[in-house]
Design brief:
Helix content is 29%, strand content 25%. It is α/β, with parallel strands linked by helices.
Length: 226
Amino acid sequence: MGVFRTNFESVPNIGLFGFCNDTICLVGNNVKKRYLKKIEAALEVPVERTSVGGTDLVGVFLAGNNNCVLAPHYIFHEEFEDLQDFSKQYDFDFKVIKTDLNCLGNNILVNDNGALVNPEFSAVVKKQIRQALKVRVVPGEICDLGNVGSLGVLNSKGGYVHEEITKKRMAELEKMFNVELIAGTINKTPYVRSGVFANNKGYVITADVKGDEILMFEDAMRIKER
């Protein structure tokens, strides 16, 4: 298990540019090559650069767990081909989801046990998400916000969520995801996903994270720095 603390060219919101599970890490084309080996070492998975809809915000637009990676339907043809090639090379499934809520990463909070999704997703889309991710899908909010994917970070061992979540809501989510949760911030923002991406093996986090935040995050995710 590993940890890599960094900013991408002085940008602290590194979570916007990365998605990972226990098989693959995908980062935006703007992430310089010099970061890739350190990301790979921290997460213990291969790292590939790509784009989604012509943007580098792969952490915003991609969502998924160890069963499947979800991409929005407006990805360009060459981006679809990239994902197809990566999926064959590294043996993971991916599915394209057609929805107006294109920022799947912002609107789906998921691990291998369950998925909390923006209530605005249609019934058809929720069914597609459930079938692809192979988990129970529950529409809901965190702190009255529907962009739940931006408000939490999960793996199969724990999770870290918006600092103002109620104890009742936290208990509900702990049951859904079958993990213990800790509430907090990353770089003093409750939109914790903006500053980090993680799997069961490690995490990549903004260099601007505060000392107390990183300790809480490590406790939440059950990942300790080597």
